[in-house]
């Protein structure tokens, strides 16, 4: 068993990440907001911490005693500071509420178990006393996945898995690693690299999200073209439920009935709490190479990526921005005046041995040129790589200057990609333009498959008087547009509470009945993350 040597700094309660990484919006971008989007020049900062309203803890004494018996009194917290740090996730609506001083969603307690057995004891205690439990990893959900829902159970505890932070086993012969669920992305990668391996999973939330969170949300990292989605990497899980433990994996592949791992991958803590994950790992790359490409338009670039996916000639990273996102990214990057005007930017990355990188790059470069691409060299891709985890900080800087900024994503087949792009882009433009100023709507292809791709949208516009309602209106319009064209309501952000109303379109009424039957079997008292994943009957 290997213990990490570093701890993630305490996150900000009203913004993404840590204060040391946050920067104010550069003046040239603020001027662009006024000139291009008509955003009135007005500061909209967060309220000070001492003005935040937090409900008093309502954890009954009998439940407190049972939980303390499971984890020890020192690992049960009801103080306001700890509860505030576990109040919801990091979506724009989450942050807007807390920035306005509203933390009434705060859990009644935060519990930090020290291992699988303690998790199971806590779940049994909470089921016995009808206390809702939200599994809490890095708290990076952007779809309401860790926000308390008290409609069924009025008392809620956050089950913080931070103490489950070990690399339990590394099987170098098989290429597998067993990691505890509370281990954060950077620590997992450090521990593996020390032994010459990598997980290769780098979502934008990488710096703060946890291994358990990756599994519970079917996370997809930015290097998915080379390493696959996180759920592709999982060989086994250890899951605690109020009724006991489930260990659904045994081999790399099996025909022993339906794969029970798939019930818990993406279940968002509603069917059980993932405490350990056994994943496929690969040798750490010896060499990394970046190259950017320009395509005359989004359709041409998408066709080029489709060709790569079909042939199986894939770089480690493959990413394509539309014209609007390309213009903004290049204008604000370190590429500066040397950036090309017009077209769409694609970013590619190659990892492996020197020989593998050279051969794969040569093969893919030939395909991209034949598909209409022009190489821009390494610098635009290097610039993206240096700043790829910093985008959420820019979102928060925009919130400080009277601007609403948020993201959403979907996925569909190649033949339906343009239809989906046009439908969602149009829905967002119309819904966010109702205030009288045009929104900025950008998009990129973030993950590709032989049969289709994901689309990731980013929006920015002037804030309305009620920015939470403003975004909810736009989100509803976009979600309905996604459903109307037959795309998925979420590719990697998960369901949470924000997407649950579209689950009937995703799996049908009978499919929901199947999922509800699983829920009732493993969680008969309904204490596991209520209000998430499954819409009310």
Automatic annotation (TrEMBL):
Give residue ranges for domain FAD-binding PCMH-type: 103-284
Site positions per UniProt: Important for enzyme activity? 319
Give the molecular function GO annotations: alkylglycerone-phosphate synthase activity; FAD binding
Q: Which cofactor does it need?
A: FAD
Residue sites binding FAD per the record: 217-220, 268-274
Q: Which GO terms describe its biological process?
A: lipid biosynthetic process
Annotated stretches, region: Disordered = 1-20, 76-110
Q: Name one Pfam family in it.
A: FAD-oxidase_C
Q: Which UniProt keywords apply?
A: FAD, Flavoprotein
Q: Which InterPro entries match?
A: Alkyl-DHAP_Synthase, FAD-bd_oxidored_4_C, FAD-bd_PCMH, FAD-bd_PCMH-like_sf, FAD-bd_PCMH_sub2, FAD-linked_Oxase-like_C, Oxid_FAD_bind_N, Vanillyl_alc_oxidase_C-sub2
Annotated residues for binding of substrate: 395
Concerning its family, UniProt says: Belongs to the FAD-binding oxidoreductase/transferase type 4 family.
The name this protein carries in UniProt is: Alkyldihydroxyacetonephosphate synthase
Q: What is the organism of origin for this protein?
A: Actinopolyspora alba
Q: What is the lineage of its organism?
A: Bacteria, Bacillati, Actinomycetota, Actinomycetes, Actinopolysporales
